[in-house]
Amino acid sequence: MRTTWRLNLLLVSLLLAPGCAGKPQPIFPAVNPPIVWPDPPEQTRIRYIGQLAGSADLKRRVGGLEAAGGAIFGKRAERAMLTPYAVCTDGGKRIFVADSHAQVVHVFDLATRRYAQWTPPKPRRFTQPVGVAYDSGLHRLYVSDSVAATVHIFDGRTGKHVGQTLPDLFQRPTGVFFDRRSKRLLVTDTTAHNVTVCAANGDPITRFGRRGDRLGEFNFPTSVTIDGNGIVYVCDALNFRVQQFTADYQPIKQIGRKGDMPGYFGQPKAVACDSENHLYVVDAQFEAVQIFNAAGLLLLNFGEEGRRAGQFWLPTGIFIDRSDAILVADDYNHRIQVFQYLPEAQQP
Q1: In the Cβ-directed half-sphere of 241, how many Cα atoms lie within 13 Å?
Q2: Which residues have CB under 8 Å from 247's CB, separation 6+?
Q3: CATH architecture label of 33-63+81-346
Q4: The whole model's pTM is what?
Q5: For the segment 285-322, what is each residue's pLDDT rounded down to a tens digit?
Q6: Cα–chain-centroid distance for residue 92?
Q7: Extents of the domains making up the chain
């Protein structure tokens, strides 16, 4: 009886605890002094916002019942990222991260501050997830598994595994990008040296590219994106360039070449475009992101080697949302770093 009375008292005290109410801490607190590129007094174009390294970074406040359960049965363990390789959003407040060595997709909901992990049911567990893309129309998440040579499809609302691409369609799928206008999924097949274009259900439509170093040919492509004008960009990694294609996949030009100067590439990994159709290229050797215009002119680069805010250690992935928030998968620093592009119209 005494034990039961004490347990009930503990539950009541936790339910009424003042720590369970009030305004939660910001997920990305203000950075002071701000970290920006280029350096002042030049006009700021890129601003560092913050990072996500695990579930604890959501700074979720625990309600009374949950706190009571934690006090009795022990707190739920916080989850950290191991090797975040690629990142995307659902077009809203959820962030999806493919963690290649942890063999899961981390799901961070910035609105509800809830965290989850998604993986296919047995026996189709992830082997090495390295790419993520989201279809906000049908609410589907696509996850490429390079070792299993497939792209998994999840219901984006529930996390339920709903299918995967046909057997033998890919050799080593890596980067994935969903084109909202054409309702097509583009997949870089790294060891097949091409890009496969699929319907929203994963069925193949066409392919473009083959191995080589001429325009329209690839040498281990790793990432693909499409800008607001429908121009396709492919990270042609071991040709040390990015190739530009028309909306019907005809080659236009290459951007960059091998070298150690700005505008050149050492180990290009991933590409993305912002609302003004600038091209962003993650380079794992330079530990930086370079920004080009559509003509291939280098405009700016940000980042350097290191572990501090705004620094990278073998970055591998990048995604830019509709508000020009830039998410970079900072692989060996075990985190996603978030930046903001500031167009001319948004300058203070």
Answers
A1: 17
A2: 182, 226, 230, 231, 232
A3: 6 Propeller (2.120)
A4: 0.90
A5: 999 999 999 999 999 999 999 999 999 999 999 999 99
A6: 13
A7: 33-63+81-346
